[in-house]
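WARN no homologs supplied; continuing
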Amino acid sequence: MAVNVYIVRHGQTYLNLYHKMQGWADAPLTKSGVNDGIRVGKTIAKAGIHLDYAFCSDLVRAERTAKLALKQLPAEERPELHVDPRFRELFFGFLEGIPVVQGLQILNGNDKYKTFDAYMQDVPMTKICDKMHDMDPKGCAEAYDPFIHRIDEGLDELRQLPNGSNVLLVNHGIVLRCLMQRIDPDGKIYDYSNPDNGAFTKLVLDGDQTKLIYFNEKQIDG
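OK structure emitted
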């Protein structure tokens, strides 16, 4: 029951452009972000990949990216787009919308880290998520366990698709970071970097097994 899942991070948004925290907060795609979505579709077509299914997060930036990508495919080869809230980004709670550097300072009480890439090399996403939750004065930020549980529920549905299916899944950076740290804990493929907007990560779901084929690629093969 092997299912090929081509995961794409949504196109660039204005909050991405200004390096601000963006979880459930949503911002429009920039011109570059629109081009990201178009490029995703053209890359799939050029690689000769026939998509059997398409899924995306219910956040606007992911849905628009997915629609832009699918529009680049011949009408007869466009699968129906399934919008699924289980693939939504992590909710940052009280950190939503603030500059990333400021968010890191709040989480650490110092300015040791300038990027999440550097932070994650010292602190796993499990602890980062839980720390955001614990520090949120309203208790709204998502802790790791419920967050990854809903992502797993979505992936479990993909595991039930017909053997050999090709699936496009458009979602988010922290979703990918958490999955990568769990699937590739030794860093054989995942390098702790933030996935680029519009870049591809390929998973093969085979029964209860998950194999990482590649991470953060702009060009792909069929």
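The two ends are 19 Å apart (CA to CA).
OK
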